[in-house]
Please model this.
Amino acid sequence: MTEAVLSPTATAARRLGEDGLAVIVGVGVLTLALVSLAGPDLLGWAVTTSVWTDPAKALGAVSKAYADLGGAGALAATYLALLVVLSLGVAALGAKVGKFAIAFTVVFVIAYASWFVGSWAHISTVTPADQTKLGVSWSLRLTNEGGFIVALIAGLVIANVFPRFADWLKDAIRPELYIKIAIVLLGAFIAVTAAGKLTLASSLLLRGVAAIVEAYLIYWAVVYFIARKWFGFSREWAAPLASGVSICGVAAAIATGGAIRARPQVPVLVSSLVVVFAVVEVLILPFLAQTFLSSQPLVAAAWIGLAVKTDGAAVAAGGITESLVLAKAAAEGINYQPGWLIAVTTTVKVFIDIFIGVWAFILAYIWTNHINVKPDAEKAKASEIWARFPKFVPGFIVTFVAGLALALGGAGPKLAAAVGEANTFRVIFFILTFFSIGVLTDFRKLWREGLGKLAAVYLVSLFGFVIWVGLIIS
Amino acid sequence: MSEQELRNELNEPVEPLLPIEKKLIGWSLGIGIVLLVLLAIVNHFLPLS
Model:
């Protein structure tokens, strides 16, 4: 369909896209938070949850200036603000606002309830000192970010036990939108964390570059070879599969499918596989990182960024890994700097994302000029690089640069407080992402669609190669 | 695409690797390994803790 036959509204919606919306919401939230540097605190009413034994005392506003609001008031204010902003956003995308608003209300309630449950002291407290302080005799020691896992499991239960309910929720199940907003917000958080810490800044750069080399040049080539040579897949299947396993999940599989002119159902089926395996990784890898890599926290974070596919699952897994690794270290009397691990995981993922367009262009060039050579076929165009470029990345760069400039300019504790308020929303968007990923993960699809052979390539490549090479190089 | 169609398609005769595919795999791995070695050298001289 060309733009000429689209209505002006539909054309505008297509141009904005989820990436554009994520940038607007993310930059907007950060801007409101930064107003507190020079004036009123505009976002202090956002809800935050403490580790609790008495549920009545769990919720509260993030800023003391809004303490009078109480937990329920802060929760209601946060829900209403998100409902209004996201409803306007999806309206701009051309979706039906009424259906979204109703579904979002249910999604928000279940997702935040999961976070609330995850903050229960018996689930979240880590150190014996904290357990004594809160008067609990046992704990699962998941930290309060164990709520992410509770949200994921809630989503998985809905998807696999109540599929009709999952289908009813689908208007508000937008994990890509939620995680992209969170990543844009993370830009400022990473900048403030890295400012003045040359070790972290240089580590971010080095690990980011290494991740690009590994994902595009090492993993892709090996997975493509395995799929073609060992499993006998055609080129049409092997290329999107290699991109899905090695680069960045869904976006890479779809970009590759388009680049090599594969039939649309090929990258779609590969993407469904990617989502399922990403969830399996989120449930397993952070705990492996905690068990085996707690003495090498940045290695653990970079490894998660490389091994877990899809932006949402990777960055979310980075958050869980940080809380688990820091918790284990704290129990041993070592206090790592908070924020560093998730900064590394996110940077690794964003660095990898940036080159999807370039890689799609290279594959398109090879396929149209050497593999599927047709005299009348459209050749690869350099404009494809921009067309495939993840448009939320400039938003991440804007918030990173703004945060860095303010941090180096000496904004100090006020800046940390302002970014902390924006970070409260980042956590909420993480919770929504986790729940949404769970709702989209119907394990039965794997077998119903006969994807066993594709899954075998994924399994062999991911658990036999990608994870371990990533670990060695990280 | 139905389950049966997908199964049939995935069981079709194997397409042999073309020279251009072998080149793509070989050059990717070659450049990748060289770049990783360079990064390892950089990391050796500017170690990160």
